[in-house]
């Protein structure tokens, strides 16, 4: 119907930070609040999509009509995303930690006189790139974000190519922008052959605009 153009379509959204454990009480994290990803999940559900939201730790309520899977680490986020497939579209708004602590300690690391602990890091799986490269069950529309602090469009285009997704929303996350944690966002929508400069607006408005574009994409696919 006109008001629920995504009715019956399954979609996956990731949101929030990941927490990478150091020991039972400590972790590595980042400043993502989850607001942008939750707003996208809500906007897609409003258009009738059946949304699975794979979320790192946040303080947010699950949007109405959305199924939430809560995880902590990047590895668990990848497993939850794979379990949610097949979907028709996947939107990766989470701020996934690029690195985890190589050997998580199962006891609390003790403070010792004159000795500093050192942490070795290991690379986390890239969830967006992994899903984009799937031979089976690749969503027909894979959308990533690019969190950049300089040359936003160039870096975003490079990420689009490197990760093999279909669209990228590139945003400036430099100090003072408030993109991480704030209520507003200014994004560029990058596709293989176009760049759109969206105005600075609330994360809800970014999400509604994106959801409308996703609905238009499927309308055009269906028309072919
Ligand atoms: O949560 P908020 O406070 O509302 O803030 C929103 C946001 C700034 C977190 C969001 O708009 C955003 O930019 N999300 C992506 C953050 C990020 O980590 O970007 P990146 O450029 O490092 O990663 C590029 C893409 O690859 C992203 O789609 C990311 O989800 C994905 N990725 C990255 C690393 C990894 N190991 N796995 C991934 O899937």
TrEMBL record:
Keyword Lyase part of the UniProt annotation: yes
Cofactor: record remark: Binds 1 FMN per subunit.
EC number(s) recorded for this UniProt protein: 4.1.1.36, 6.3.2.5
Source species, domain of life: Bacteria
Ranges in coiled-coil conformation: none
Region (Phosphopantothenate--cysteine ligase): 11-224
Cofactor entry: FMN; Mg(2+)
Span of domain DNA/pantothenate metabolism flavoprotein C-terminal: 6-216
Family listed: In the N-terminal section; belongs to the HFCD (homo-oligomeric flavin containing Cys decarboxylase) superfamily.
Stated name of the protein: Coenzyme A biosynthesis bifunctional protein CoaBC
Species of provenance: Sneathiella sedimenti
Gene: coaBC
Interval of the full protein contained in this chain: 185 to 408 of 410
